[in-house]
Specification:
Blueprint lengths: L3 E7 L1 H13 L5 E5 L2 E7 L3 H14 L2 H8 L8 H20 L6 H5 L1 E2 H5 L5 H4 L7 H22 L1 H21 L6 E2 L3 H18 L7 H4 L1 H14 L7 H21 L7 H26 L1
Antiparallel strand pairs: 1-3, 2-3, 4-5
Helix pairs in contact: 4-8, 8-9, 8-10, 9-10, 9-13, 9-14, 10-12, 10-13, 12-13
């Protein structure tokens, strides 16, 4: 390579990342180490094109976002919140099976379309905690832990589970609007597929720089949709509508969070507040359900 022109000077790790950006679009480059950093050089006739590509990449990935992206969260980040999720599902499964405190938990908490359409919004939330049998419960425990921890890796535990709860509730609400009044559903799978949608939408938005090909931009959402089709369409009693609605709402939330999450508070206190909001919403929904059922 002759007639080299420097297009960036950066730290070694950042320079390597920028070099990959150029190589991805077919621009050959060379890293030249100097005092305090590394110069990224390209052939003179490609210098302007290289600068345009790097400018587009850096607009989509500001320096503070690049720095935070390199700070990996702990491998088991979100495990505590996932265990609380398990405890909630196990508690309501046992309470429902035993009809504890003489309460028919399914009757007052299931997502019955007609009642939701008439204003019983809390059923969109309470239905997420109820399950018909051990198999239904076990599947949602495993999938919920997995997808929940993945979302927690990118959003933090509190914001992740608040978003998952909202995706599940709004998904149940959307599903109720699309079904006759007698349609009834229970289970956290709407929230589980909401988590998958959040992860797909967030990844699509955060990994969608202008320099990437149009087809590759949609890979995260396409992959999420394929997982939805593989995991969410099987079984005679599967509520496909709820799964699709949860995924769709989750994908919308994920796209929004990918666009604006960096502007939200992200510290430990903020994550605690998000978690408390999720817990408060769940508690309020069950209080209203118990009140309506008496």
């Amino acid at each position: 390579m002759t007639d080299l022109v420097q297009v960036r000077f950066a730290r070694k790790a950042d320079a390597r990342q920028l070099a990959l950006v150029l190589l991805a679009v077919g621009i050959d480059c060379r890293l030249v180490e100097g005092d305090g950093g590394v110069a990224l050089c390209v052939a003179a006739h490609q210098a302007e094109q290289a600068r345009q590509q790097l400018d587009a990449y850096e607009r989509e990935n500001p320096p503070e976002e690049l720095a935070s992206a390199h700070q990996a969260r702990p491998g088991l980040h979100g495990l505590g919140a996932a265990l609380i999720y398990c405890m909630i599902l196990l508690f309501f499964f046992g309470a429902n099976r035993r009809q504890s405190w003489s309460v028919d938990w399914s009757a007052i908490g299931a997502a019955q379309a007609g009642l939701i359409q008439d204003g019983a919004w809390w059923r969109t939330v309470t239905a997420l905690t109820l399950h018909a049998d051990h198999g239904h419960l076990f599947a949602n425990l495993i999938a919920g832990i997995g997808f929940g921890m993945l979302v927690a890796q990118v959003l933090g535990s509190g914001l992740a589970w608040l978003a998952i709860l909202l995706a599940g509730a709004l998904g149940n609400g959307l599903n109720a609007l699309l079904h006759p009044a007698a349609h009834t559903a229970i289970g956290s799978s709407t929230a589980v597929f909401g988590a998958l949608g959040i992860l797909s939408g967030y990844t699509q938005r955060r990994r969608n720089p202008p320099w990437r090909s149009r087809i590759r931009r949609w890979v995260p959402l396409a992959a999420g949709s394929m997982l939805l089709a593989y995991l969410g369409f099987g079984g005679a009693q599967t509520d496909v509508g709820a799964h699709v609605a949860g995924f769709a709402v989750g994908a919308g939330l994920g796209l929004a969070l990918g666009r604006w999450a960096q502007h939200l508070p992200q510290g430990r206190l903020a994550q605690l507040v998000y978690a408390l909001l999720a817990g408060a919403l769940l508690a309020l929904a069950w209080l209203l359900a118990l009140q309506a059922g008496t």
